[in-house]
From TrEMBL:
Source organism (scientific name): Anisodus acutangulus
Highest taxon in the source lineage: Eukaryota
Name this protein carries in UniProt: DUF674 domain-containing protein
């Protein structure tokens, strides 16, 4: 299953009096997706939203300015338009663009040059012998470093269900925390509450990404339009 074909699900708890999402129950894969947003370079976010016509603010103008500049005036477009994520991960659904490398790769001089220069561009020239820096190097992590997110699979552990608030605050789910939230939202009649499971794919994921920059009620703004709440008599 490719990232674009993946589907995630959330169980929403809805207050039918206000037609707002109080919070959602989420499994590991959903939380991994939300946390993965933090690792995305700004240019990647702009590119993803631009492709769906979801521009926001002036950042797309900066992106287009770089893209439209002739090579006479700019040294390297790819550094700005196709930045490399600091997190190497393949198990998180969505938001992984094919032309954006998931992790850094390093190269050394392809000749027997005694200088130990390193680059992340295989077509760069060695500063000493001026030959191609095409020899791929292997990165060795220091001892004691924890396993990477790629090795462990995502960011969070799948031992619990997580609670995702309407403003995307994430915390472990518990009965006590659920009751405390109902008190916080002044819900006196549980009869007004409704559970709704929503499945969402790439389209909704991008809407959620965009809403996270614009709103404090992200789950409500993205998912309530997909749900038909019966009108009260």
């Amino acid at each position: 299953m490719t990232n674009s074909d993946s589907k995630l699900s959330l169980k929403l708890l809805i207050d039918t009096n206000t037609n707002k999402v109080l919070f959602a129950e989420a499994e590991k894969d959903c939380v991994d997706f939300l946390f993965h947003i933090l690792s995305l370079p700004v240019a990647t976010v702009v590119k993803l939203l631009k492709e769906k016509g979801m521009n926001y603010g002036c950042l797309p103008n900066i992106y287009d300015s770089v893209d439209n500049l002739n090579d006479t005036y700019i040294q390297s477009k790819d550094i700005l338009l196709k930045p490399k994520s600091s997190v190497g991960i393949s198990s998180v659904p969505f938001l992984l663009v094919n032309d954006v490398p998931a992790q850094m790769e390093f190269y050394g001089c392809g000749s027997s040059c005694i200088r130990y220069y390193v680059t992340d561009d295989p077509i760069a020239l060695c500063s000493s012998c001026r030959r191609s820096m095409s020899r791929k190097l292997t990165y060795v992590a220091p001892q004691g470093v924890k396993k990477s997110v790629e090795a462990t699979g995502g960011f969070v552990k799948g031992v619990v269900t997580y609670m995702v608030m309407d403003d995307l605050v994430v915390k472990p789910m518990s009965t006590i925390s659920s009751i405390a939230l109902l008190t916080k939202f002044n819900v006196k009649d549980v009869g007004v509450l409704r559970e709704e499971v929503v499945n969402f794919g790439m389209e909704e994921a991008l809407k959620l990404l965009k809403a996270s920059f614009e709103s404090k009620t992200v789950l409500t703004s993205v998912f309530m339009s997909l749900i038909k709440v019966p009108k009260k008599c």
